[in-house]
TrEMBL record:
Active site, per annotation: 309
Name of the protein in question: Adenosine kinase
Protein's organism: Gasterosteus aculeatus aculeatus (three-spined stickleback)
Stored PROSITE patterns: PFKB_KINASES_2
Pathway named in the protein's UniProt entry: Purine metabolism; AMP biosynthesis via salvage pathway; AMP from adenosine: step 1/1
Superkingdom in the source lineage: Eukaryota
CDD domains noted in UniProt: adenosine_kinase
Cofactor: Mg(2+)
Subcellular location per the Swiss-Prot or TrEMBL entry: Nucleus
């Protein structure tokens, strides 16, 4: 993994500071991760491949409850943005509740477990709770070294700006933050909520960060993405997403450094800050300032699924403390390196990062 960023940039403040509670804000699709070692019969029952990622269909609806009944399961607070916020909190450690998180869950057993698990990671999660859809879940069905992921967004798709974000007590939490992060996945849920937060950040010269998240976001939700882009101060993405984005934007290049340059030059509302583009890609060097990844023996890699979320979380943990960009990237690489050694987006009690 190598990060490219543009321009060469330091944050406003050269002196680092301990962030106050609620200084990092995230909004996205909260999912309860349900992890278990299963058998081949279970995969066959639900027509699952051993190593795959799919969205749940009608045939998978009973899978989640059956998994809980049949196997020993672990629960974790998940979903891309929530993962990044909890990783940032873990990297910073104290004080607690640095990260605020908004998203939608159901009024059900899985929702209660999700609230408990989020609290255990010391993030300040404020969920919009509704009873039309159940809490979103992501089943991780492990067989040997393989891992089949089945995600059911359910309630995560039901976030409503007027029912939650606009409420005075919730908007006050938004105003307390100085760094904002929303994964591109949320563009499929509530564009109006993203725009309200993005405009607030821009008008108050705060940092608004976004992730391309997946090629399908760049392809099928590009209109929503491009409505938000003028407010984006820090744009994250991997090589595959960047290539898809470049194709949809007619950049006429697959060269990562050129894509970064063109993305950085897209129109921007807050001209006090130049856009920073942080792209991760294999082990290839680039002509821009590059950061070598931490070496890891392939046999130590347990699960790469949370690596992207962890990379962003590590980056945000330093960004919210006004650290220089090279330190943000160093922390990003450290967090990703820790997470890929473990199942799911989980981490030891304390980081060992200097």
């Amino acid at each position: 993994m190598c990060a490219v960023f543009l321009p060469q940039h330091r944050t406003d403040c050269a002196n680092t500071e301990t962030p106050h509670p609620n200084s990092l804000f995230g909004m996205g699709n909260p999912l309860l991760d349900i992890i278990a070692v299963v058998d081949k019969d279970f995969l066959d029952t639900y027509s699952l491949k051993p190593n795959d990622q799919i969205l749940a269909e009608d045939q998978h609806k009973a899978l989640f409850e059956e998994m809980v009944k049949k196997f020993k399961v672990e629960y974790h607070a998940g979903g891309a943005t929530q993962n990044s916020i909890k990783i940032a909190q873990w990297m910073i450690q104290e004080p607690h509740n640095i990260g605020t998180f908004f998203g939608c869950i159901g009024k059900d057993k899985f929702g209660d477990i999700l609230k408990e698990k989020a609290k255990a990671t010391h993030i300040d999660a404020h969920y919009y709770e509704q009873d039309e859809e159940p809490t979103g879940t992501c089943a991780a069905c492990i067989t040997g070294d393989n891992r089949s992921l089945v995600a059911n967004l359910a309630a995560a798709n039901c976030y409503k700006k007027d029912k939650h974000l606009d409420l005075e007590e919730n908007w006050k939490l938004v105003e307390k933050a100085k760094v904002y992060y929303i994964a591109g996945f949320f563009l499929t849920v509530s564009l109006e909520s993203i725009l309200k937060v993005a405009k607030h950040a821009s008008e108050n010269n705060k940092l608004f960060c976004m992730n391309l998240s997946a090629p399908f976001i760049c392809q099928f939700f590009k209109d929503n993405l491009m409505q938000v882009m003028p407010y984006v101060d820090v744009l994250f993405g991997n090589e595959t997403e960047a290539t898809a984005f470049a194709k949809e934007q007619n950049f006429k290049t697959e060269d990562i450094k050129e894509i970064a340059k063109k993305a950085q030059a897209l129109p921007k509302v807050n001209t006090k800050r130049q856009r920073i583009v942080v792209l991760t890609q294999g082990k290839d060097e680039t002509v821009f300032e590059t950061f070598p990844v931490l070496k890891i023996d392939p046999k130590d890699i347990v699960d790469t699924n949370g690596a992207g979320d962890a990379f962003v979380g590590g980056f945000l943990s330093e960004l919210v403390m006004d650290k220089p960009m090279d330190q943000c990237v160093k922390a990003a690489h450290y967090a990703a390196n820790v997470i890929i050694r473990r199942a799911g987006c989980t981490f030891p009690e304390k980081p060992d990062f200097k």
